[in-house]
Structure prediction request, 735 residues.
Amino acid sequence: MLLEIKDLHASIEGKEILKGINLSVNEGEIHAIMGPNGSGKSTLAQVLAGREEYIVTKGEVFFKGKNLLTLAPEDRAREGIFLAFQYPVEIPGVSNTNMLKTAVNEIRKYRGEEEYDAMEFLQMIKSKMKLVELEQALLSRAVNEGYSGGEKKRNEIFQMAVLEPKLAILDETDSGLDIDALRIVANGVNMLKSPDNATILVTHYQRLLNYIVPDFVHVLYKGRIVKSGGKELALELEEKGYDFIKDDSGVLV
Amino acid sequence: MSNTEVTTIEELANREYKYGFVSDIEAEAFTKGLNEEVVRKLSKIKDEPEWLMEWRLKAYRHWLTMEEPHWSNVHYNKIDYQDIIYYSAPKKKPKLNSLDEVDPEMLDTFKRLGISLDEQKRLSNVAVDAVFDSVSVATTFKETLAELGIIFCSFSEAVKNHPDLVKQYLGTVVPSTDNFFAALNSAVFSDGSFAYIPKGVRCPMELSTYFRINAASTGQFERTLLIADEGAYVSYLEGCTAPMRDENQLHAAVVELITLDNAQIKYSTVQNWYAGDKEGRGGIFNFVTKRGHCRGVHSKISWTQVETGSAITWKYPSCILQGDNSTGEFYSVAVTNNMQQADTGTKMIHLGKNTRSTIISKGISAGKSNNSYRGQVKISKKAENARNYSQCDSLLIGDKCGAHTFPYLEINNPSAKVEHEATTSKIGEDQIFYLNQRGIKTEDAINLIVNGYCKEVFKELPMEFAVEAQKLLSISLEGSVG
Ligand SMILES: Nc1ncnc2c1ncn2[C@@H]1O[C@H](COP(=O)(O)OP(=O)(O)OP(=O)(O)O)[C@@H](O)[C@H]1O
Ligand SMILES: [Mg+2]
Prediction:
């Protein structure tokens, strides 16, 4: 098993947001997490990535059999967790290339692999750029600075392609994308899919799932996964809204 | 509490100041205190001509009438000028022409500082003048330079061997009465570096002075005088370190640069004096007067400084743009961490026609430090078509530090074009987390951001210096966020 979350509780500023999450993800699987605004989807993503502001009060998380919660955020990344941020952060003065070269080499070092020299690195990112149809110009620009909303999202997928994670968590990467960009992002995810990695897609829209077919769909509601199913669950949600979940699970507003 | 063991930014270890060791070198020193007798004795010991002793005494007498200035945005306990040793020299008087006779302990000191005084072993193309406490101990590559007519030696030697040049230029940019610390320096300066580049000569290597304060309770008052004659060019580097001590030590230097017609001087500083400990105990008071005079037409003076050390840095490398079409530049990175204070910037005084100046200042504050940019741009009545561009950026790391910008503009000619831009930004937790999430640890994340921020200034530094500057920056910012 790649990721195992057991009864995970987490709070921020004394307020409990995650109230007992259980989730297992195997290599080769794609999981979609849906749920109304404020239900805790991004919180779950950030807790898995190691954001310190969120305090884990109970539960366990294992990644490749290791206790994930004791690892620093950079070590989680080096172990193979990648988070495509819902709101990618601007870093003025640091070029995309420079950031990625540092990142890739840190990860390679951690894995006991030889660091890339400048030539090898450029060759590698060229092929990845094609994959997500990223323009050359974005490479030399500062990370996310002045990028359009869609460019930021595409840049996240580009970084994912470069870093080749074991587990990619895409937090609403489809939001705000035009139809072409959506196709490009979905293509990227599909091409990177392999039997030894997995993806968690956080999304509000079933349309993404037309492009990326999930093995499982989970509904997160008020800090709990209240329903899980196959890809047809997404369609059902789209049709009936979240009300039917509330009835179904017996959780009331 | 969180059961994660993620490294919080606060937890980052604070690495020790690497240059903080004391060398065990026998020194010959005056007793503490300052009076006319001390000034005379100093001048005598150095075997100086009468006119120089008189010059010193005049400065001293003027200094007595002056008050220590307090207009800057820095705070410190009163300095007791009678509690300072005004002269300390290594006992074994090194023969300046032969490295073999330099105290091996001292060679070792410079080796530990990463400075090789051994010409054969030097790979980089840099001639070094090493100043230890009050005196210059070795100048390398002298002969190579002499073939081109370039004079590069300690100040004391220049006084002996080139008295006419010294007399002609000394104090013509920074008069001995200029300000409190310049007057003090003029009275008691002990040594420093001197360079003269003759007409039409492009100095083929970087000239460099390395300053080291070693002895306790000693003030360092060195004087640098660089002259680029018509059409000459020189690039000059200055580096500094000091041992870690609980007391504050005063460093009050004066640097004078002169460019004649079509000449250019590029002056780079990497200042890494001991900054004091986390609580603000000890460290160097770096009160320095640096000024360049573009005397000739089409001449140019560029100051590039990377200031990471000192408990207090208080200096404004300036340019007087007198020659028509002359250019002044100031590129600065000033980093303060823990309890450090910096009040630094520049003055660009436009006197000639079509004079240009550029100011790029990057202030980085971390810990509980305070960092101020203070800059003056003055366009005089006769300076037709003067141009100035100033950009002053402040970067805050954490929320206990301060950044301040004090621009002063004085424009007396309507044809002037003056532009000023200023920004303040902050390294946020979300930026650091974003980079952590890409596999980059917090320390490296801060370095990445800071180096990106300072790129414009670093590219002005000679290669080897730029690398050193980046390293210094990362060391001085360690444990910086809280
Ligand atoms: N820093 C914070 N301080 C206080 N409350 C917070 C903080 N971060 C998140 N929350 C709260 O936690 C809850 C869950 O937020 P989260 O961002 O995880 O929701 P989400 O499911 O991702 O929503 P969306 O679909 O709108 O992105 C919200 O009520 C939010 O206001
Ligand atoms: Mg969200």
Residues 169 and 225 of chain B are 8 Å apart (CA to CA). The interface with chain A takes residues 1-8, 425, 428-431, 433-442, 444, 448-449, 451-453, 455 of chain B (CB under 8 Å). Residues A 12-13, 15, 17, 35, 37-43, 86 surround adenosine-5'-triphosphate (ligand 1) (CB under 6 Å).
